[in-house]
Structure formats: structure tokens, C-alpha cells
Specification:
By secondary structure, the chain is an alpha/beta fold. The chain folds into two domains: about 45-225 and about 400-495, Rossmann fold (3-Layer(aba) Sandwich); about 230-375 and about 500-515, Rossmann fold (3-Layer(aba) Sandwich). The chain is built from 14 helices and 17 strands. The strands form three sheets. An eight-stranded mixed β-sheet has the order 1-2-3-5-4-6-7-8, with helices on both faces. The radius of gyration is 28 Å and the shape is globular. About 50% of the residues are buried.
Length: about 525
């Protein structure tokens, strides 16, 4: 009986021990799951300051994270090294570069690399040439087509308030879309953060000159000419074309304010009898062709039967490539065309495939069937070529020589790899040049804002107040030309490089300089009172 009792006791004790160990094991597993897996409903972390939302890594990072885009890996790590050098005892301010950082298309990944390289090279130069505070650079990903910009704007607002970050400006903005406008409006109007838009050219994303009321974007500056200014510069360069010589082809896809603004800019009054009516199409997205090829074939046939030889194209590079090819395919009694577009076409050659060049050359091989010209914000050959013009004689205007010297300094920095290995740098598409000039402009504004209190961090408004000081002696001699800002924060008479995609050489050829006002900037770059 005693043995049975011992057996019963031991069995009871063993069962309870198994249950306790099982519960302890489940508890331990729960702890591990809690530690290593995020709670249900919370986003995964991609990197410091970056979380996954809807399949994209959204947020702000300056520690070398490349957002899964291999093309910017080297330059992202170079930014991290420079940031580590900056963040120490010396005062510093943060500048955020806000761009979609996970593009699907190879051409867009390469142009993204150009933009990030431009920002880093400007940071590197500023930190070795200017007084404190130094510049810390961070990358801000608002998602595809700026679709998740609200999350990033929230982060940037917190960084502007945080004295460890001292965010003092946001730059970038390479797509003129409704979502881009919302981001800029909230940053400037609601959060009072200075914004310098380096690449968006839509007229609606600018403060109007001599506005009757308050600026829609207080604290916004921009260094690229608007679409209207680009159209004026192209008209000045070409001379006045007759209406019957031109036709407008425009994309009517909703929410793309670049297309709308460019179409409005090209819808200018021209002399002579009326030309053909506008030819419209609607693309499915910025990067998708959809059925546009069928539309372009029909549009090309109609243009062939018209008197137009110059085609104004208001659309994105993906669709411009397809339209140019369809236009070249239509047999039209040897008729040759020049397609004219805006600064968004600066990377068109990156979308062209190997056999596209032959199709654009046409049959006779002497003169291309279709030549594409566009208004580029800059070109590496511009200043050398302009200074060789015979009509200049012995004159060497400062509005040509100073940007020439600035471009040479940047080129030497790239060639010698003084700033480290940041991947292949290509200046021809103007993106590196323009984003570089934007960050240099911010650095100049921070320097001026800090002039009376050297060694401290200026407040946000003090930085944005400096936009209107950037003229005359305080102008910025950018690689893309002098940057002199109006009181509304817009670039005054900024030069435009007229660039041609030549199918014979497979190159972006510089053709000449166009000036929005029809004449070069004043020698002292002082903005006149009748601006606007």
C-alpha cells in the first residue's frame, strides 16, 4: 500500500512538473516572439528612422541606408561617413533630401543616383569651405509618386523641433504632382520649415510675384525656371515660330501638375494663320505606357497631314520616347520634325533602347527624322561653348565665367574622387548639377542667417528670410548659372540650356543658352523692382 501511495505521489508530481515546464516553455517562447517579432499591426523596421508601409520603406535616414536601391548604396554610405564627422562638438544643422528612393525602373534609379550624388557633393564642399554650423544630410523617402509623404512630413516636423537634429531645410522634390504640392504646402505653411525645390518646374509650385495676399508657400525657394519661364527661354532661343508651324501634344492624366503646367506654358500666342488643334492623350501613370502607342500612331498620322514641323510635347519621358518613335515611323514624304519639351526630359536618353536610335534617324541617314530638344536646367558644356561665341569678342561676362569656374571645381572633385567613391557620376542629365546647386544655396542661406551669431544654430524663420537676400553680392554662382532670388523666392531670369538628343551621335548635345527674359541677367545679378 505504501508503494502504491509513493507511485501515486510521484506520478502526480511528475504530471505537475511537466505542466509547469510546458507553461514556462510557452512563456519563454512568448517572450522571444515579443522580442524578435513586432506586435501584430505594427510596421516592420527597415532601418533607423525607416518603417515598412504598404511594401515600401518610408522614413528618414542618414546612417548609410540605401532603401534597397543598389545604385545609391555607395553615395549613401559616403553621406553616413560625412555625417559621423559632422555630429560632434561643433554646431550643425540637418538638411533633408526628399525624393522617392525606391524606383522600379532602371533609368529612374540612375537619375536618382545623380540627384543624391549632387546633394552629397554640395554637403562635402560646404563642410570644408564655410563656417559653422556644418551640414548633416539625411535621405527622406515619401514613397512612390510621393504617395506616403504625410508620414515623412510628420518625421521632418519632429526633427525641426529636436535640438539634436536641428532640421533647417528640406530640398529635393523631383516630380510636380498633387502629392508633392501637399508635402510642400504642409512643410512651409503649417510647420514653417524652409523648403528649396531643386527640380519641380510646375508654375503652381511657386509663390506668385507681387501676390495680393499671403504667399501660399511661405519659406519656399526654387532654383529651376518654371515651365512658363522655360517656354519663354525656348521661344527666345528659336525666335518666334509661326502658329501653323507648331502643334501641341499633351497628356491629360489627372493629378500630374507638371504636364498641365507645361501644356499651359506651350499654349502661347504665335503669329500667323492658326495651326493644327491640340492632340491629347491620357497615360495610365508616370512610368506606364498603356495604350498610348496606339494613340501616338494616330496622332502622328494627323500631324503628318498638317503644316506643323515643331511639336510641343507636354508629358513624361516614358511617353515622349514612344511618341518620338511613332512619329519617326510614319512615312511623310521626307518630312522632318523637332519635338520640344521641358526639363522633365533631361533623362530621356536613359529610356532609349539600342535600336531606338536607328528608328529616330530615319531612312536617309543624313538628317534625323525626329530630333528632340528640351529646356535643361544645366549642361556641362554650356559655359565653355557660350564663351567661344564669336559675337562676344573679347568680353567674358561674369554670368558665364563664374558658373564655368564653379562647374570646373565640381568636376575636379568628381574626377579626383576627393570626396570618395560614390559610383559613376554623370553630369550630362543636369540632375547632379542642379541638386548640388540647391544644397549649396541652402548652405549660403544658413551661413548668412548665422552671420551675426557665429557658432550657433539659426532659427527656422531666420533661414527662410535669407532667400530674398540671395542676389547681387550674395548671389550663388551655381554650376547651372547664377542663382538670384526674387522676394517670392523664385530664380530671376535663370538661364536654360537648350539640349538636343541627336540620333546620329547618340548623345545629349548642347545647342545654346536661352534666357526667360530674352536677355542675360544683369551684370550684378540685382533683381529689378518690376519682376513679375
Amino acid at each position: 500500500m505504501r508503494q502504491f501511495g509513493n507511485w501515486l505521489y510521484n506520478t502526480f508530481l511528475a504530471n505537475w512538473m511537466r505542466r509547469i515546464l510546458t507553461l514556462l516553455g510557452l512563456a519563454a517562447a512568448g517572450v522571444l516572439l515579443y522580442v524578435f517579432l513586432p506586435p501584430i499591426g505594427e510596421p516592420d523596421s527597415c532601418a533607423t528612422g525607416v518603417e515598412e508601409h504598404a511594401g515600401e520603406c518610408i522614413g528618414v535616414n542618414g546612417t548609410g541606408y540605401a532603401f534597397g536601391t543598389p545604385e545609391i548604396d555607395k553615395v549613401a554610405r559616403a553621406i553616413a561617413r560625412e555625417n559621423e564627422r559632422v555630429v560632434g562638438d561643433k554646431p550643425h544643422v540637418t538638411v533633408a533630401l526628399m525624393l522617392p528612393l525606391q524606383p522600379d525602373i532602371a533609368a529612374e534609379r540612375k537619375q536618382l543616383r545623380s540627384e543624391v550624388q549632387g546633394a552629397y557633393l554640395a554637403q562635402y564642399r560646404a563642410n570644408r569651405a564655410e563656417s559653422t554650423p556644418l551640414l548633416r544630410l539625411v535621405l527622406a523617402n515619401p514613397g512612390d509618386a510621393y504617395g506616403q509623404q504625410a508620414r515623412v512630413v510628420d518625421q521632418l516636423g519632429a526633427m525641426a523641433r529636436d535640438k539634436k537634429d536641428n532640421l533647417r531645410a528640406v530640398t529635393g522634390f523631383n516630380l510636380s504632382l498633387d502629392a508633392t504640392e501637399k508635402a510642400i504646402a504642409r512643410l512651409t505653411h503649417d510647420l514653417h520649415i524652409p523648403v528649396l525645390a531643386s527640380r519641380v518646374s510646375a508654375d503652381g509650385l511657386a509663390n506668385p510675384e507681387k501676390a495680393a495676399g499671403k504667399d501660399p508657400y511661405p519659406g519656399l525657394a526654387r532654383i529651376i525656371p518654371t515651365n512658363r519661364q522655360q517656354a519663354d527661354a525656348l521661344a527666345s532661343f528659336h525666335g518666334q515660330l509661326k502658329d501653323e508651324q507648331t502643334v501641341l501634344v499633351k497628356d491629360e492624366r489627372p493629378h500630374d501638375i507638371y504636364n498641365n503646367s507645361l501644356a499651359a506654358a506651350f499654349s502661347r500666342d504665335e503669329d500667323g494663320p492658326p495651326g493644327p488643334k491640340d492632340q491629347t492623350f491620357e497615360s495610365p501613370s508616370i512610368t506606364e505606357q498603356g495604350d498610348t502607342g496606339n494613340d501616338f500612331s494616330l496622332i502622328a498620322q494627323n500631324i503628318c497631314q498638317s503644316s506643323a514641323r515643331y511639336v510641343y510635347f507636354a508629358g513624361r519621358p516614358v511617353h515622349l520616347r514612344l511618341f518620338a518613335l511613332k512619329l519617326a515611323e510614319v512615312p511623310c514624304r521626307g518630312k522632318k520634325y523637332t519635338v520640344i519639351s521641358g526639363s522633365g526630359s533631361a533623362t530621356l536618353d536613359r529610356y532609349l533602347k539600342a535600336d531606338d536610335w536607328a528608328r529616330l534617324r530615319g531612312g536617309d541617314g543624313k538628317e534625323p527624322a525626329v530630333t528632340v530638344q528640351y529646356a535643361a536646367p544645366g549642361h556641362p558644356d554650356a559655359w565653355d561653348r557660350e564663351l567661344r561665341r564669336k559675337d562676344l569678342g573679347k568680353r567674358r561676362p561674369a554670368y558665364l565665367t563664374q558658373p564655368q569656374q564653379e562647374l570646373r571645381t565640381l568636376s575636379e572633385l568628381i574626377t579626383r574622387r576627393t570626396a570618395g567613391d560614390i559610383g559613376p557620376v554623370r553630369l550630362g542629365d543636369s540632375r547632379t548639377m542642379l541638386v548640388h546647386d540647391g544644397v549649396r544655396t541652402i548652405a549660403k542661406a544658413v551661413l548668412l542667417a548665422n552671420a551675426q551669431t557665429e557658432g550657433t544654430v539659426p532659427p527656422l524663420k531666420r533661414v527662410s528670410d535669407m532667400w530674398q537676400r540671395l542676389e547681387a553680392v550674395n548671389k550663388v554662382a551655381g554650376t547651372s548659372g547664377w542663382i538670384c532670388l526674387t522676394n517670392a523666392g523664385n530664380a530671376y531670369d535663370k538661364p536654360v540650356a537648350v539640349v538636343e538628343l541627336d540620333p546620329r551621335t547618340r548623345a545629349l548635345e548642347f545647342v545654346g543658352i536661352g534666357w526667360p527674359n530674352g536677355r542675360p541677367q544683369p551684370e550684378d545679378c540685382r533683381v529689378p523692382s518690376d519682376t513679375g
